Amino acid sequence: MPKPQRKKLFDPTELARFGGLALVARRVMEGFLTGVHRSPFKGFSIEFAEHRQYYPGDEIRRIDWRAYGKTDRYFIKEYEEETNLKAVLVVDASGSMGYRGSQPLSKFEFAQQVAASLAYLLLGQLDAVGLLTHDTKPRAYIPPKTSSKHLLTLLRQLEDTKTGGETSLGEVWDKIAGQHLKRRGLVILLSDCFDQNAALSRALRHLRYGHHEVILFHILAPEELEFPFKHPTKFKNLEVRGHELTVDARRLREEYLKSFEEWRTQLRRTTEDLHIDYQLLRTDQPVDRALGAYLARRE
What we know:
Elements: H1 12-16, H2 20-33, E1 48-53, H3 65-71, E2 75-79, E3 86-92, H4 107-124, E4 128-134, E5 138-145, H5 150-160, H6 169-179, E6 186-191, H7 197-209, E7 213-220, H8 222-226, E8 232-236, E9 244-248, H9 249-273, E10 277-282, H10 287-298
Parallel strand pairs: 3-4, 3-6, 6-7, 7-10
Antiparallel strand pairs: 1-2, 4-5, 8-9
């Protein structure tokens, strides 16, 4: 008797009607899910709240045996969330994310593909996923849902979003934490994190104060990490129109690399102190390889 085939969450012909992001997400996630039997996000979904007394008919597996050992009475663990994981993808669409450098994808286009792939994965395991995009302020917010058709809503919003203007990233994340992310869950930040470390630290602390689990995908172009410029070079501010500066790149390189690494080291130290999962993603790496390596490590 032939084995029943596992039903696919989305029909490829249906996905093809909605453009590149859907197909990218499907390719990335189906490649990762081959041979993986457990969700890399398992463990976020249920939050313990309190005990109540056991009554006949309650499931025995919910009895807290430690409480029984102390009190000689049966208590049941009550949970705040019996549904699956609720995750929100927070995608930075500020001007600096439009930087492409020598790569086929800009940082924002790279973030779009990562966000689409994660949405595909989370919805495929029946978790609720939402999306929030921002530049100088929150621009679009789609609350978490579990419906399979919800993926197409998320992908349309991602594809319709364009990079905007200058932003104080820490202030925006702080506002998002207070206004949009009130219910505890998994918050996935996708950003180049270009702001002062003190402002970023305050915002990240605010998110953790709300008892969210937080993952920070730090998306950078190779030029930002390596500064390979050797000749007098004109740099354009992508967040302030008309702001350009010509510098002697060779003389600036050593100072730039030192300052940049100090800034990134401090950011990583902050995430470690707050128990935030930090992952650097370079835009010169294929999305499936960069994201797949992270998910495999987490799994």
